[in-house]
Structure formats: structure tokens, C-alpha cells
Design a protein that fits this description.
- By secondary structure, this protein is mainly alpha-helical.
- The chain folds into 2 domains: 2-48, no CATH class; 60-107, no CATH class.
- The protein has helices at 2-5, 33-41, 60-73, 77-80, 87-107, and strands spanning 23-26, 45-48.
- It has a two-stranded parallel ribbon.
- The longest helix is centred in the last third of the chain and has 21 residues, at 87-107.
- It is globular, with a radius of gyration of 17 Å.
């Protein structure tokens, strides 16, 4: 719940600004009614995979994007292990890595 409360306001269309995302995707480790109720109370729809069911929940489509992004960032040795103590320097290297990844994709 502290992570959900730390979500910054969601940017989007012109009008009243939204304060939270529409839904939250989670894996089987969070499959408990307690977590579902807590997330629903904040106004976010929980989409959590159920334990004991086959892998047909559809969450793999979203999970693949996250895992692929982490794999792309691991191309850069400096980001595999966080050596930077200061957050701003680490964030700068993450931004630079993301820019290089986008540039390589656009050049192709």
C-alpha cells in the first residue's frame, strides 16, 4: 500500500486531473482478498492472477513489456548493479540509457 500511495498524479487529457491509474496488474504473489480489498478502496481496479489456475490470465502480455524493458536496460553495465549513491546521477544514467535504446530503435 505505501507504493500505491506514492504513485504520482496520472497525466492525461485536458480537464480535471486524475490522481490514480485505472487498474493495477499483479502476479500470483499478491493473490489474497486482503490486497484486492485494499486496492479497491483506493479506487483502483486490481487485476491479480489467481493461484492454482493455468497461465491463461492474460497478464503475460503486460508483464512481457516490463521484463523486456529491464532486459534492455541491462545492456548497460553501469545499470546492472547500482553503483551510484545519489539518486539524481542514477536517474540521469537511466534517462541516457533509455534515450540510447530509443535512438537505436529509430535508426533501424
Amino acid at each position: 500500500m505505501p507504493l500505491i500511495k506514492a504513485i504520482p498524479p496520472v497525466r492525461g487529457r485536458v480537464g480535471r486531473p486524475r490522481q490514480r491509474p485505472d487498474c493495477l496488474y499483479a502476479d500470483r504473489g499478491y493473490d489474497h482478498d486482503k490486497y484486492r480489498r485494499l486496492v479497491w478502496r483506493t479506487g483502483i481496479k486490481p487485476i491479480i492472477a489467481r493461484r492454482g489456475t493455468p497461465h491463461g490470465s492474460g497478464l503475460g502480455v503486460h508483464r512481457w513489456v516490463v521484463e523486456r524493458t529491464i532486459a534492455l536496460l541491462h545492456w548497460f553495465r553501469r545499470l546492472r548493479i547500482r553503483w551510484e549513491i545519489r539518486d539524481d546521477i542514477h536517474e540521469a544514467f537511466m534517462t541516457l540509457a533509455a534515450a540510447i535504446i530509443c535512438w537505436r530503435r529509430l535508426v533501424r
